[in-house]
Amino acid sequence: MTGADPRRRGGRLRAGWGDLVMGAGMAVTGGRSGWTRTVLTALGVGIGVAMLLLAAAVPGAIDARAARGAARSDQGLPGPELSAAANTLLVAQVDTVFRNRPVRGRILHPEGPDAPLPPGLTAFPRDGEVVVSPALRELLGSPDGALLAPRLGGARVAGTIGPEGLAGPHELTFYLGRDNLTADHAMRLDHFGGGGPADEFGPVLWLLVVVVVVVLLLPIVVFLGAAVRFGGEQRDRRLAALRLLGADAGMVRRIAAAEAGTAALVGLAVGTGFFLAGRQLAPLVSLYDISVFPADLRPVPWLVAVVALAVPLLAAGMALLALRRVVVTPLGVSRQATPARRRLWWRLLLPLAGLALLQPLTDVRAGRTAATDGQVAAGAVLLLVGTVTLLPWLVDLLVRPLRGGPPPWQLAIRRLQLDSSASARLVSGVAVAVAGTIGLQMLVAGVQDEFRRPSGQDPARAQAVVSLYGPPESRRVLARIAAVPGVTRSLGTVSFVAFPASVGAADPDASPVEVRIGDCTALAEYADLGGCADGDVFLAWRDRPVPGLGPGTRIGFGGGAPAWRVPADARTVPVRDDPVGGRGDGLLVTPGALAYRPPDEALATALVGLDPTDSDAVERLRSEVAAVDLTASVLTLDATRESRQFTNVRRGLLIGAVVTLLLIGMSMLVGVLEQLRERRRLLATLVAVGTPRSALGWSVLGQTGVPVLAGLVLAAAIGLAMGAALLRMVGAPVLVSWPVVGLGVGLGAAVVLLVTGASLPVLWRLTRPDGLRAE
Amino acid sequence: MTGEPLLVGDDLHRSFGPTPALAGASISVRAGEVVAVMGPSGSGKSTLLHCLAGIVRPDRGSVRYRGTELATLSDAGRSALRRREFGFVFQFGQLVPELTCLENVALPLRLERVPRREAERRAGEWLARLEVADVAGKRPGEVSGGQGQRVAVARALVTGPRVVFADEPTGALDSLNGERVMRLLAGAARETGAAVLLVTHEPRVAAYSDREVVVRDGRARSLEQVA
Amino acid sequence: MSIGHTFLGLLESSPRHGYDLKRAYDERFGHTRPLHFGQVYSTLSRLLRNGLVAVDSVEPGEGPERKRYAITEAGVTDVQRWLSQPEKPEPYLQSVLYTKVVLALLTDRPAADLLDTQRAEHLRLMRELTRRKTHGDLAEQLICDHALFHLEADLRWLELTAARLDELAKEVRA
């Protein structure tokens, strides 16, 4: 009951609080070097935080895009047929592609004053007018505009679509007004939006998404851990000074934790700044036809809260962890003189636990639950964290037996032998990223066959197919197509459906026959004709004859045209896959054999060969076709077809991997610079005594190179293990894809070379002999 | 004291920002002599040493080493000169903390492509000569300040330099250790015939020299006429 | 330095002849200034007169060098008292150098040159002592160090005065 000791009276809590405040103060004061350290940490943490916020904003951005996409959807729910009314609108889809960028196009014709206006428009474009997205407007104004303009029906640009009508700022889209649009070629709507739900991701895709998130975010977390250790040596020295002033070990720990936490808080602020600034730059970026509005990048609030809490706590935790390895005495800091031989068992525990979690999941297809998602995520995290824990051990193992070598090598090796963890820490981010990338790419390579199948198209025979519905003068149109510059070959046919007269049109078994009219060369694409001359007629059979069709059969063309009789000498020929992969039986007729004009409803098809050296040939073709008929389709042929969701996930992965590696590269650069800065005086002295700078450069390379080598080897091993586990999970055969491993390792190595290269100018600057003066 | 001076600095000017550190300093060093450079703090002593050693390029004036103007050499050329012809002892922070003392002393030889075995043998001899043979296997962080400085002296002398530049070599030592370092440095230099340019502010350290040059306000004055 | 006390101290271990005393003294303490025989015998006769030493034995023959001296009880007490008494630190308040500098300033002579000349002279002596120290035994080293530290103090004073010469000039001429 004395209550005389103020310290006691305030309680341990208040004393502890005082230490924390003091530590926080030290982070922002403490002279130039203190500042530099805080700035470096804040920069590093800031970059990481910005990335985390960006990741937290991705769901929001996807939702925002999807919401706008749904709001403007004109693929209404299947419902009762509408008839023309005051509130209806005719819409025809005239999508096209320009230089591999998709262009969304719609022809609009309001049928009454209350017709629904699509989002982003203030008024309907009048006949011959078009409203375009800003990106399209810009494109039209560019020298390329002339090539594109015919696809908009040569209409006058009358306005711009507002952001609420666009998926993203770089989207190319237009609404064209046409009074002559009829219901035959269009859809009737009384509202926009309300389309069906977006395509569900299948379980395998979900697995991919979960792993992608882990693989992309984990390196960022690892990097954050490294960033809060920037300037550690100097901090340790300062803590020693505090001990000298009478601080006890506990106080020192609290001060260190608070200092690191404060720096992390500053980093958090910096990161928020980066994110907000970066968000404004979002419209400048367009990756894989995807662009986002700044406002779309709204991080999910609870994720933001997690980041805001976790980062300072992580920083404080790392600071405490780092202190465990050093003894701060009043007379200085001694690292445990001969670092204890790193023990392997607990380092192996994490990745093994990760594998153990992944192993039992042998079939995710059976059913995906939140629990399996969690298990996959946890397993992947543990496995990848194993890279971080095993790396210092592996570096030690590699370096310990090494001796001597040329001086730069000796310098590097000795430094690593003394403290391998600092260098290992720098590299662990890259290693984790590479391991994750390898694992993921293996999964992607393993399952891509599932999402990518042969389309049946044969791009060797034709590169594009033009289909025009009921062109007024099909022969002339086909001739126009053939005349487009860059078109090397055009095989035009006109096809329509007819009925053998022997069966009544009302007969339920009535089997309509496709009649295709074209010259011998064109027809040869559809069947193995053998010999052919004008005037010939062929019966192309798939596997059995069309019932009731044979030489002499009378065929009605409809539309009041007189019936036509299949000539008696018509030959039966085996059908052949056309270049689009179709295979239709029916009648193949050369023009000389048919005196009649084909009916109006006929479909003109041209199989088009394009000059492979002329990348604009297809654009000219599309524009020429659009000039004939906006609704005509031009299909470019591709031997394989990919699921769109899969494509998106794969693209996301690629973007993510590149961004992550760049980030890691930046962080490594900061780390390397930080290490150089701490050794500035020594470096300047070494140069002063005549050490060639190249020797120092090589030693820096060796110092990062050895851990990087170890890191990449480890990353390859862990990545392969993860890939194998994931492949097993989806039931795909476990195959090591060496190109994938090579790609991952190559990317990692490239980052390291880049970083070392980028740090050299600073090394050069630091080693200017004038550096000696900095005393 | 005959013959051409070994190292001559003539009318040296050098400013850092607006403050002139050297304003027309001239000095010459003959082979085998120990020259003390003294003067108040900030008088330009260290800058003079850095200019003479080709570490800092003077704004004006010339430095000739054995008749060669240093300004005509490339950066690499001056590096090589410092490596082969010069030796350096600084106040502190000159030993590579990761290398053992023996490896530190062997480093200049190894940079000259001397095989490791031979380099370390010669380094060991020098350590013995400077009475620090017992610390050969230790890292600089594990030896005392005086021992570290003697290791540094060994490193400066191991290549058989013609000029040793010593910038406050005893600045961080107590007088007993400081004198021991100076005795060994001056003794070894005299034996090998190396000239020593010794920057110091301690008269007792300067007393190990053959003559004294005082730097005041960026100018050097030789006081030898009295001697 | 009191030669009398030094003799008493030397005699305390064993009786000696005058000649031995001189040699022992020169060896240990008289590096630069060996004693004259006159000094030795005048000192010994003073000690004898005061009863601090006594003639221990006289060898046959002529001259004072035949006498062997020994310390008396009173002599031992005297040495004891001398050793236990601290020497009065010298205040160094009367400095010829300072006087010279002020006079140079008053008469507009170059005081800085005066200081530099003195400085060079001090350093020359310090160099000489350093050389002796390097080749001498421990006793030699300690004696030289004693001198070196004093010279160094002077030299520091010269440096300080040189740095503040302008200030001093203003004050003196005011």
UniProtKB/TrEMBL annotation, chain B:
<dbReference type="InterPro" id="IPR027417">
    <property type="entry name" value="P-loop_NTPase"/>
</dbReference>
<dbReference type="InterPro" id="IPR017911">
    <property type="entry name" value="MacB-like_ATP-bd"/>
</dbReference>
<keyword id="KW-0067">ATP-binding</keyword>
<dbReference type="InterPro" id="IPR015854">
    <property type="entry name" value="ABC_transpr_LolD-like"/>
</dbReference>
<dbReference type="InterPro" id="IPR003593">
    <property type="entry name" value="AAA+_ATPase"/>
</dbReference>
<protein>
    <submittedName>
        <fullName>ABC transporter ATP-binding protein</fullName>
    </submittedName>
</protein>
<dbReference type="GO" id="GO:0005524">
    <property type="term" value="F:ATP binding"/>
</dbReference>
<feature type="domain" description="ABC transporter">
    <location>
        <begin position="7"/>
        <end position="226"/>
    </location>
</feature>
<keyword id="KW-0547">Nucleotide-binding</keyword>
<keyword id="KW-0813">Transport</keyword>
<dbReference type="InterPro" id="IPR003439">
    <property type="entry name" value="ABC_transporter-like_ATP-bd"/>
</dbReference>
<dbReference type="Pfam" id="PF00005">
    <property type="entry name" value="ABC_tran"/>
</dbReference>
From TrEMBL, chain C:
<dbReference type="InterPro" id="IPR005149">
    <property type="entry name" value="Tscrpt_reg_PadR_N"/>
</dbReference>
<protein>
    <submittedName>
        <fullName>PadR family transcriptional regulator</fullName>
    </submittedName>
</protein>
<dbReference type="InterPro" id="IPR036390">
    <property type="entry name" value="WH_DNA-bd_sf"/>
</dbReference>
<feature type="domain" description="Transcription regulator PadR N-terminal">
    <location>
        <begin position="8"/>
        <end position="78"/>
    </location>
</feature>
<dbReference type="Pfam" id="PF03551">
    <property type="entry name" value="PadR"/>
</dbReference>
<dbReference type="InterPro" id="IPR036388">
    <property type="entry name" value="WH-like_DNA-bd_sf"/>
</dbReference>
